[in-house]
Amino acid sequence: MRRLLISAAFAVLAIPAFAEDAALLMGVERYRTLDRFTASADVTDAARALQDAGYNVDTLKNSSADDMRALLEKLQARSVDADRLVVALSGRFATDGDRSWLLSRNAPVPSLFGIAQEGISIESVLQVMAATPGQSILLLAYDKTEKQAYDVSTRAGIGRLDIPQGVAVILGDPENIKDLIETAIVVPNTEIVAPVAANSSIVLRGYRPKALIMQHPAERRVAPSPWTPPVSSRSDTVDPQEEAALWQRMTARDTVDAYRDYLRRYPRGQYAQAANDAIEAIRTEPNRASRLAEEGLGLTRDKRRAIQRDLSILNYNTRGIDGIFGAGTRAAITNWQQENGFSQTSYLTDEQISRIDGQATRRAAQIEAEAAREREAQLRRDRAFWDETGANGGEAGLRSYLDRFPDGVYADRATTQLEKIQETKLNRAARADRSAWTTARETNTQRSYQTYLRDQPNGSFRDEAEARRTALRNQQTNSNTNAQARATEEALGLNALTRRLAETQLSRLGLDPGPVDGTFDGKTRRAIREYQRSRNLEPTGFLTQIGLIQLLVRIGN
Known about the structure:
Blueprint: E1 22-27, H1 47-52, E2 56-61, H2 65-79, E3 85-90, E4 93-95, E5 100-103, H3 115-118, E6 119-121, H4 122-129, E7 136-141, E8 155-156, E9 167-172, H5 174-185, H6 193-197, E10 203-206, H7 240-253, H8 256-265, H9 272-284, H10 288-296, H11 301-313, H12 327-339, H13 350-388, H14 395-404, H15 411-428, H16 431-443, H17 446-455, H18 462-491, H19 496-508, H20 522-534, H21 545-552
Parallel strand pairs: 1-2, 1-3, 3-7, 7-9
Antiparallel strand pairs: 4-5, 4-8, 5-6, 9-10
Helix pairs in contact: 7-8, 8-9, 11-13, 14-15, 16-17, 17-18
């Protein structure tokens, strides 16, 4: 059986048997409604050690609230004459923040007004133990990781405890509490405060004298020697400079052992509270070892940007490519670790970085191959549709082609031919028709084109009016989307170099962005839309972070 790393020098005094010394061990692990708490009742196995140390011990396992109260009433009667009191309660606890209860085996899901019926009040137990100040220890064993909320007023765990003067309360998990009883509380002639306070597996609250010695009155005339940490043989006087130098060395190591080394040398030193706080911070920090290992890699900001780009290519959203591993990047790393069979620490190892880079390289190649295939397929569809519609030069066919492929291979040709057709029609049109059309086109609103269609139902520009009215309606519908897309691109803060790189890559991919000058004009926007279509991205003509990453990933490779 695993034992706490507490030596006999860290124990509480045990004495020969006296009937006045009382102990109560109560554990609940099997619940009818709540989840089982494995090994919780094992604390009752410490009864034999306490009996051998002179305690009159009562135990109770997996019992009802009535039986638990009956045993506590028995303890209350004994406490009147008791010289020492030791009580260990183990199981599932509930609290409303100010009060706490140990739940019985029949307890339903706790509620504010139902706990008292199937729970044992910890505050009541503390009142009983207050009868023996300085010689009372209450041990509470529970799962400290449980934070479940039972209802709006109650949750799992132990809340604030109003501990009476002279009562020490020790909290830990069932195994540690049992080991503490068997290896410390039953060992004679030693105090407990300093060693227990320095042990990260248990927490001491309440009565904290410089030395807690559990004695029988007959033995108080000769007090046992308290536990004292080793001190330098050179001097019994604390040297502030020497203490500060040791503290600096220990903080540089920044480990539990380092801070305990400081506490052994200076248990009441000027940095003692800071040392205990540091120990608690280390003990409670999740994945500390993984964090320190990642820090040891010495990742530069450029390397962190590369990792963020790789994760983004793999479709893990880092919320930025800035070289800063914030909450977004940590979440992306955690998700990647989960899907790749690694512990979900949110911190990377050298092996994981290599795997991410390899996966991103492979995925980038896949994206390029998929885009090339899609581009070829799109060109085939473009040419085939042109052959069936716009190739004959008819107005209806040209409009049909532009509706389907507004940024197509033949879009410029179709637009030019339509303009020539419109010019010819304008020259041939009757004066009234031509005047009405000129007015509609100069006004250029949905209403102006609707007016033209109403006044010239058989006008020469009927098809053009319908097309322009539809285009304006679509433009109005898409205005919010376009504004959002523009804002998204502006938020990227693209400098001139990045814009030129983007234009260069668009040109390499066979898209025509116009001059490579860092200015995103109409031709550049059209090339971006074509690129987005080939990547199954929304064809807005404005770059997003993921689109830019995919576009630039092959630059320099």
